[in-house]
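Z., the sequence and structure:
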Amino acid sequence: MSKKVVVLPGDDAAPEAMEPALGVLRALEVDIDFVEFPRGEQWIAGQTGREVRQAIDNSDSTLFGATSGKTQGIGYLRWGKDTFANVRPVCWHQGYRSPLKNPEGIDFVIVRENLEDLYLGVEVPLPALAPAHLVSRSTGKPLDTSNEGARAAVKVITEKNTRRAAEFACRLALSRKQAGGKGKVTCSCKYNMLRETDGLFRRVVEETVAQYPELKYEQFIVDDFARRIVQSPHDLDVVVLPNLYGDILSDAAAGLIGGLGLAPSGCYGDDYAYFEAVHGSAPDIKGLGIINPTATLLSAEMMLNYLGFASAAKRLGGAIAKVYEQGRTLTPDQGGHASAREFCGAVIDNL
């Protein structure tokens, strides 16, 4: 059955990865109708934002580049479509320029709760908290809200969204176990200090994983886990994290295998999912044509699987792996001299 996919190229250098990546998808000859929007710098304020929301509602998925704030509709993809689980695979392949001596076998997935935590963006002048008469657990004293120059941010963790992310992580761990994986879920947050918020996150994840006796479970305080993700990444399988820690630590995890240019992601809800590279819009290399399109292509591979094109997804993943094994057409971040177009051309040659 034909599928409809919205394409948001993004801002700065991101469209330089998206355009040739679409050429690769077209070479796969899958039954997808691509609804393309212009790069962020070319959008018309107001009109295009309304149109993109309508297009998203009429689509089966969205493939997105990266934004520095110019592309509209991105918040709608997350909160409007209720995409609560941000899935970020971390998998080393032969040819990736990892800084580790032995990166072979690194293969885990971070499931990041995608809707709340500090990313709700509730920030206020500190005096606005005065009516709440808050008391610091650390000092035992009432919070001094008299400093008009100070600012506060609100961290929100709910049982509903935590449980949804944890359920997603458990189902993913089960599917990976069936394919030969470890069958393990790891939870991390700052539950020793933030007992009400991160403590709730830990408790709900524990309760959820307990409903899956075929899975192993472990948990670590997030500062300890930051060490473990570098020192023993081979021990990990599926990691579930609150929004902020998931964002930060998935970038660190990408460094294990060779950088953000290799890091894909998908954001899943009950009825919709969109896919995007983990990296930003890379304004420092805009116009040079050297951005690594691998993250965009791997995100597209995830999208193909989501849409039911498993055979095409396997072909795409295999072709990307082949380019890295050959090592002749790699972008500068991976030690080569190829442009994004040349890299994607090599992927097409290996389909």
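DSSP finds ten helices and twelve strands in the chain. The longest strand covers residues 85-91.

Let me know what you think.
H.
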